[in-house]
Structure formats: structure tokens, C-alpha cells
Amino acid sequence: MIDPYFNENDILLRNTIRDFVEREILPNASKYDLNEEFPSDVISKVSDMGLFKLGIDENFGGVAGSNMHLAIVTEELARGCASTAVIYASHLSLCAKYIDKFGSDKQKALYLPKLVTASTLGALALTEPDAGSDVAAIKTLLTDTDGGFLINGSKHFITNAKEAGVIIVVASRDPSLGYKGLETFILESPCEGLTITPQTGKLGIRASSTCELNFNNVFIPSVNRIGEAGRGFHMTMEVLDIGRILIAAQSVGIAQMALDASLKYSKQRRAFGNSISDFQAIQIMLANMATEIEAARLLTYRSAVLSDYNQPFETEASMAKLFASKVAVESANQAIQIHGGAGYFAPNVAERLYRDAKVTEIYEGTSEIQRILIARSLLNR
Ligand SMILES: Cc1cc2nc3c(=O)[nH]c(=O)nc-3n(C[C@H](O)[C@H](O)[C@H](O)COP(=O)(O)OP(=O)(O)OC[C@H]3O[C@@H](n4cnc5c(N)ncnc54)[C@H](O)[C@@H]3O)c2cc1C
Fold first, then answer.
1. What is the pTM of this model?
2. Residue from 187, 363, 373, 374 whose mutation best tests the ligand 1 pocket (most atoms within 8 A of CB)
3. Sign of the dihedral through C-alpha 146, 149, 151, 156
4. What is the CATH number that goes with domain 8-118?
5. Which of 20, 279, 359, 360 would be a feasible disulfide site paired with 251, CB 3.0-4.6 Å?
6. Could you tell me which CATH number the domain at 122-230 has?
7. Residue 300 DSSP label
8. What class does CATH assign to 233-380?
């Protein structure tokens, strides 16, 4: 069968990751989720497969890989464990790719070889207690000092920060300048003046760590500033545009597992002398899920392919994230409905997916922000 989006290599990649997820990730996904435990052994295995190298400059240890490849990997990982998918995507698309795209050769030589093996994990620290959707409101302050900069302030909700050895920090030279005052830095963690506090008790993606960061006169050498002064906002937005494709892919993976689990259960579960899959009410839910997942997947692939061909893709990425995250939430909801009471209790996979799905409508730009971006682009056209 001809696949309009996948060539043979893409199919091989997808099948390889799917087998790996079935074998190595699915069996323990609930355990890590329920214990709020970082899946270190899974991340090592993902690294052993070379997946952290994808799309990173080959001169610094990476291998060729398109955004479509990253979307395929993220979708398949999320099918098994949404936490693993967000650890992967945050490390690769928000940190390693940030340095790969905007870092100096010196920065790339120093950090990328560690990031491509995930011997050092990466994070991006953008969000603050008073600056979430409104990135221009960032208050974390940078001041010049001998040989570099001092950073003071705080961040929260930062994925991977506890485990990360490399954190990209977005700070402001002067908060009154708004987005024009933002600059980005590579911070090696741990370091003097930096306190990292895990924020536990998340609804979903509980195996990934999310942390608060406090900076008290944290020194960053001048060579660790990424790009030119005043470019911080634009560079970060470019990174988030690709990041949104991967959150869309994560959403598709969550939704696909909701469907797969529902198909399996509906054939096994009997009521009134029939498999519940014989009931039209259940079939309608399955049909709706399958159709919407396919539509979400196509939007996701479309934005990935456009970005790979260097075409404008930002609006399409917002559409993909907006739609796919909604499909993830709805599909997980339907999966619980199909599982009945059994789906309401951990460690049932439907229960985990229901909790994991919600965050896809929040991080890397809420659904409201995606609508604003889409509308802005429509009205500007
Ligand atoms: C589990 C998790 C992991 C995360 N990981 C990271 C990370 O690794 N790095 C990082 O920097 N950040 C991370 N975040 C932060 C995430 O990106 C923000 O939570 C998100 O951007 C929303 O910001 P906020 O929480 O401050 O919400 P707010 O901006 O306060 O928004 C609250 C509500 O108001 C709405 N709203 C805001 N502005 C508007 C507007 N103009 N028009 C209409 N509605 C509006 C929002 O859509 C939302 O519904 C993470 C968050 C979570 C929950």
C-alpha cells in the first residue's frame, strides 16, 4: 500500500520504535507513572537506539533526521508512555536543537556530544510564575559582570530540570523592554546559586520531572550566551514552533493508544451475551476516535513536512497542536467510557491516558494561544 507521507525508511523507523515501545516501555509505564518515578532505564535504552541524535549536526555526534522523523518517534513513544515522549521532546527539540540551530561552533562542540547520547539531559527554562502565555513579561533578570552575566529570579514548570546538566535559560536585560529585552544562555547544572525544587503531584505525565528554579546571582560566562543580544525571544519562538509539532505528535500517540486499548477491550468485554464491540453505540465511539486521530495525524505530518521543506509551517503547527491535543483529550475520555468502571481505576491504561492527555492542551502554548496565533495569521494574510 502506498503511504502518502511515509517512505520506506519512515515506515522502518516507525515499526522499529513501535516494537521497542511494546517490549521496553509499555510493560512498566504504569509503574513509573504511579510512583512519579523518572524512567532512567527507559531513557538509557532510547539513547542506545540513537534516538537523541536525530536531526542534530553530524559534526557534533548527531545523525540526519527530519522533523517528520522526530514526529514519528515522539508519536510512537507517547503511544507507550506520554512521560517518556515529553522527556524526549523537551530534551531534543527545546534544548539540543536550540543549541544546534543557534549555538556557536564552540557551544555545539562543548554540549551537543553530551546531549546526543543523553549522558547529559537538557531542558528549556522559559516559564515563570508571572510569565506563562505572556513570555514578554519575563522578569528573571540578567546583569553584566566581569567575564559574563549574573542571573536572578525564578522559573517554574520546567520539564527535565532535576535531571538536566544543560538548561537553556531565557532572561531579561530590562523587563520594561518586553520581548526585546530577552536573551538566552546555556547554564550548566548544578551550579552555585541555583536551587531546583521538584513540583510533584501532577495530574498526568507523572514520570517526567517538573521543577521550580531559583537563581541567586548565578554566574554564566559570556561565551554561554546563545546568539546576539535582543534575539532571545525570536530564537525561542522558532524553537517552540517545532516543539508544537512534537506536542501534536505526542497527542496523536496518546489518542492512538486510547483507540488501540479500546478496540482490544471492546472485543474481550461481554455484556448482555455479546462482546460490547457488537453494540453500535461502542462502534460509533470507535469510528469517531479513529477518524479524528487520522485527521490529527495528517495535520501533524503536514506541519512536519512543510517545516522539513523550509516552507512556512508555523500556523499549520499551531493548528496541528490545537486539534491533536483536543483529539487526545476526547479519545482518552471515550476510552474510559468504553472501558466502563474498569477504566476508572489505575493501573488501567485508559485512566493513565485520560490524565496524560490534558497537559497537551496547556504546554508549549495553550489552546487559547494557538487560536490567537492561527487567527492572527489568517487576518494578516
Ligand atoms: C507539566 C508541564 C510541563 C511544562 N514544561 C515546561 C518547560 O519545560 N519549560 C517551560 O518553559 N515551560 C514549561 N511549562 C509551562 C507551560 O508552557 C505553561 O504552563 C503554559 O505556557 C501556560 O502558561 P501559564 O501556566 O502561566 O498559564 P497562563 O498564561 O496564566 O494562562 C492561564 C489561562 O489563561 C489563558 N490565557 C492567557 N493569555 C490569554 C490571552 N491573551 N487570550 C486568551 N486566553 C489567555 C490561557 O490559555 C489559560 O487558559 C510546562 C507546564 C506544565 C503544566
1. 0.98
2. 363
3. negative
4. 1.10.540.10
5. 360
6. 2.40.110.10
7. H
8. mainly alpha
